[in-house]
């Protein structure tokens, strides 16, 4: 999938006990990131893909929350209720390894690694430990291998329904990377019958 995102792979799994016959038509989209601009840009692309490719009504958390409002269970429940969402689709960076190369020689001049733990995330995939949350980096940097987790929750009981894991490698093409990842997410949700 995509031109600048190499080896993009998406896998999906149902949560134990989740009802497999449910279809979602109105989703609250949350890009779980401490970087407000990165969060809003990702949400905008995913909202556009859901609306145009799947006919789903999608509401971006950035359009329904104040910029300084914390991402937590209370704020997500409030927003989901206010927009009458039947599901919350939360996406976060789980791991990334980046390297910066100079010239055409392939010499690595520096590298960065980021690894989050699931211990720091609670209801609706929101951060519990903000120290870890603030340590995350953008996946849209130079030559990055990444892992992104997307979780779909139903809003009646904040129950996890389905989890997607997206992995790949990219080279500094922010809009194309967002487009590739969001297209893959929408395609997998459609394959699972969670959206039309």
Walk me through the topology:
Elements: E1 5-14, E2 26-32, H1 36-54, E3 57-60, H2 61-64, H3 73-82, E4 87-101, E5 108-115, H4 130-134, E6 144-154, E7 159-170, H5 174-191
Parallel strand pairs: 2-3, 2-4
Antiparallel strand pairs: 1-7, 4-5, 4-6, 6-7
Helix pairs in contact: 1-5
Overview of the structural elements:
With 196 residues, the protein is α/β, with parallel strands linked by helices. It is 29% helix and 34% strand. It is built from five helices and seven strands, in the order ββαβααββαββα. Strands 1, 2, 3, 4, 5, 6 and 7 form a seven-stranded mixed beta sheet that branches. Helix 1 links the parallel strand 2 and strand 3. Helix 1 packs across helix 5.
Tags for this entry?
disordered N terminus; 196 residues; 7 strands; seven-stranded mixed beta sheet; globular; 29% helix; alpha/beta
- Radius of gyration over C-alpha positions, nearest whole angstrom: 16 Å
Class per helix and strand makeup: alpha/beta
Total helical segments: 5
Helix content: 25-40%
Task: Give the mean pLDDT.
Answer: 78
Between the first and last Cα atoms, what is the distance in angstroms? 21 Å
Q: What would you call the quaternary organization?
A: single chain
């Amino acid at each position: 999938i995509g031109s600048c995102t190499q080896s993009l792979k998406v896998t999906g799994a149902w949560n134990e006990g989740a009802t497999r016959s449910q279809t979602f038509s109105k989703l609250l989209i949350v890009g779980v990131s401490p970087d407000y601009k990165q969060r809003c840009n990702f949400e905008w692309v995913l909202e556009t893909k859901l609306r145009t490719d799947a006919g789903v009504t999608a509401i971006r958390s950035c359009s329904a929350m104040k910029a300084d409002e914390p991402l937590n269970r209370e704020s997500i429940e409030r927003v989901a209720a206010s927009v009458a969402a039947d599901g919350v689709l939360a996406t976060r960076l789980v791991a990334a390894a980046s390297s910066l190369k100079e010239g055409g020689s392939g010499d690595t001049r520096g590298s960065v690694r980021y690894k989050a733990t699931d211990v720091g995330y609670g209801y609706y995939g929101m951060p519990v430990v903000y120290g870890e949350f603030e340590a995350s980096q953008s996946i849209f940097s130079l030559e990055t291998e990444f892992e992104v987790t997307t979780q779909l929750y139903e809003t009646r009981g904040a129950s996890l329904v389905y989890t997607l894991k997206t992995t790949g490698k990219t080279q500094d093409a922010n809009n194309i990377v967002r487009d590739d990842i969001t297209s893959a997410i929408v395609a997998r949700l459609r394959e699972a019958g969670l959206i039309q």
